[in-house]
């Protein structure tokens, strides 16, 4: 029983940690590409900025879904038999 709880805690940490790394890399790459494209065509900067904010929200939403799944496993674990 204790071994399963330890593995669940490890899995929750991996879900949150790898999700945070992936989201931060994705937003960093997207921000860099936005700056490159805005420097090449400044007249499209406003349109590109609105699309960038929508994509940043979607990337963060995927990370928050991972956090919600990790919290589900941590507090209402369906794998532990009572």
Question: How would you describe this structure to a colleague?
Answer:
The chain has helices spanning 2-40, 45-75. The longest helix is centred in the first third of the chain and has 39 residues, at 2-40. 5% of the residues are buried. With 82 residues, the chain is mainly α. It is built from 2 helices and no strands. The model has no long low-confidence stretch (mean pLDDT 90). It is 85% helix and 0% strand. The chain has a single domain, classed as Up-down Bundle (F1FO ATP Synthase), CATH 1.20.20.10.
Q: Could you provide a short overview of the structure?
A:
The chain has 82 residues and is mostly helical. It has helices spanning 2-40, 45-75. 85% of the residues lie in helices and 0% in strands.
Could you give the topology of this structure?
Elements: H1 2-40, H2 45-75
Helix pairs in contact: 1-2
Features:
F1FO ATP Synthase; 2 helices; elongated; mainly alpha; 82 residues
């Amino acid at each position: 029983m204790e071994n399963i709880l330890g593995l669940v805690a490890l899995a929750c940490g991996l879900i949150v940690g790898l999700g945070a790394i992936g989201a931060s890399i994705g937003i960093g790459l997207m921000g860099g590409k936005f700056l490159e494209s805005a420097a090449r065509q400044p007249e499209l900067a406003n349109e590109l900025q609105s699309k960038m904010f929508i994509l940043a929200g979607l990337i963060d939403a995927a990370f928050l879904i991972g956090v919600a799944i990790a919290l589900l496993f941590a507090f209402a674990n369906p794998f532990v038999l009572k």
